[in-house]
Amino acid sequence: MTTTDFNTILVVDESPAKVYKAINNVRGWWSEEIEGNTDILNAEFLYRYKDVHQCKIKLIELLPARKVVWFVLDNYFSFTDDKTEWKNTRVIFDISQKDGKTQLSVTHLGLVPEYECFNVCQDAWTTYIQESLRNLIETGKGNPNPKEGKGINTQLAEKWNLI
Predict the structure, then answer these.
(1) CA atoms 16, 19, 21, 23: torsion sign
(2) Is residue 128 exposed (0-12), middle (13-18) or buried (19+ Cβ within 10 Å)?
(3) What is the Cα–Cα distance from 103 to 13, expressed in whole angstroms?
(4) Cβ contact 38:26 at 8 Å
(5) What pTM, to 2 d.p., does this model score?
(6) Where does 26-91 have alpha helices with state H?
(7) Less crowded by CB within 10 Å, the N or C end of the chain?
(8) How far apart are CA 128 and CA 143, in angstroms?
(9) pLDDT in tens, 7-52
(10) How far apart are CA 94 and CA 86, in angstroms?
(11) Which one-letter DSSP state was computed for residue 20?
(12) Of 61, 48, 113, nearest to 90 (Cα)?
């Protein structure tokens, strides 16, 4: 079966438990500009990258050492005409063992080539997963976006009923 949803696979010499823990340390590999819990079932968190991207994500599945699933509740890109991109999509982190190694398959279900952001988002996800998350798993230090100190966009926070 061929899929057009974004997918990348990472293979490491670390335990599934260590990979699971690193995935849930979102501030350690994606962005230090995260507000909310990133490791509690049904918790919601906000991601922000400058004035370019902001999203609200809910953790809908947490199976220790096996699987993490995020549901994108809301999203904003400054660079797309279609303001619905990413909304109601899922980011699925599947952890398995293969040939004595741990394999992590990351699929952004709903991030497809038809999206305006696909090329940019594909490049960004690939870098975050293949470089930053890999580094966090293997060395304990990822390469997340640094905290800017601005916090979330208050207009979006109001729209999303956060304040």
Answers:
(1) negative
(2) buried
(3) 9
(4) yes
(5) 0.90
(6) 26-29
(7) N
(8) 8
(9) 999 999 999 999 999 999 999 999 999 999 999 999 999 999 888 9
(10) 20
(11) H
(12) 61
- Which tokens hold the place of 7? 């997918």
Structure tokens at 41: 């079932």
Q: Does residue 73 contact residue 66 with C-beta atoms inside 8 Å?
A: no
Structural domains of the chain, ranges and CATH numbers in brackets:
6-157 (3.30.530.20)
Q: What angle do CA 70, 31, 71 make, to 5 degrees?
A: 10
Measured CA to CA, the distance from residue 107 to residue 160 in angstroms comes to 25
Q: What's the CA gap between 129 and 117, in Å, rounded?
A: 17
- AA letter at 153: N
- Alpha-carbon gap, residue 85 to 83, rounded angstroms: 6
Encode pLDDT of 97-151 as tens digits: 999 999 999 999 999 999 999 999 999 999 999 999 999 999 999 999 988 765 5
What is the identity of the amino acid at 10? L
Name residues whose C-beta falls within 8 Å of residue 161's C-beta, 6 or more positions apart in sequence.
none
Query: What tokens were used for 87?
Result: 């909304």
Structure token digits, residue 130 = 């293949």
